[in-house]
Amino acid sequence: MTARSLGETGDRQAGRLLVRTDARIVLQVPMRLWSRKNDRLHWALRRRREKPQEIALWANLLAAIGGNTKRVPRRATFVRIGAHLLDTDNLPLSCSHLRDCVARTFGVDDGPTGPIEWCYGQRKGPWTVELTLEFEGGA
């Protein structure tokens, strides 16, 4: 699969690029993130729900970075926007498949020794995920 423009992700959700500078990229992709802690779903059902979200984020992310996966961000911040707020322990779990997607896109480890610092936030509003990538200095 190849990413086209930010508004042309096929049947996947089209995202919006809010900010694009040498040091920062902010994009929003409409999707609903659920708390994984208490969902008790079979792994295959959870995967069926999460896979389209990963593909949508991946396509929008590639379009936003212009396909340049060599420049790894130093910080990635996920902001979950939804009808209600999650507990602080459920928030990182709801974003874990997207975190894996970002790490795979840049070809790095998403563990504690990886090059990316992972941050999370949330606010009320229409179901959306906002991803902010911060890079070292300029291009």
Structural description of this entry:
By secondary structure, the protein is α+β, with helices and mostly antiparallel strands. It has one domain (16-134): 60s Ribosomal Protein L30, Chain: A (2-Layer Sandwich), CATH 3.30.1330. Helix content is 28%, strand content 24%. The chain is built from three helices and five strands. The chain has helices at residues 43-65, 90-94, 96-106; strands at 16-20, 24-29, 75-82, 117-124, 128-134. Strands 1-2-5-3-4 form a five-stranded mixed β-sheet, covered by helices on one side. Helix 1 (43-65) crosses helix 3. The chain is globular, with a radius of gyration of 14 Å.
Amino-to-carboxy terminus distance: 27 Å
Separate helix tally:
3
**Structural domains: how many:** 1
- Derived structural class: alpha+beta
Percentage of residues assigned to helices: 25-40%
> What's the pLDDT, averaged over the residues?
87
Q: Return the CATH architecture.
A: 2-Layer Sandwich
Overall geometry comes to globular
Trace the largest sheet across and list its strands. 1-2-5-3-4
CATH classification, class level: Alpha Beta
How many β-strand stretches?
Answer: 5
CATH fold type? 60s Ribosomal Protein L30, Chain: A
Order of helices and strands: EEHEHHEE
Q: Note the beta-strand portion.
A: 15-25%
- Which runs of at least 5 residues are low in confidence (pLDDT < 50)? 1-12
Biggest beta sheet attributes: 5 strands, mixed
Which value, in Å, is the CA radius of gyration?
14 Å
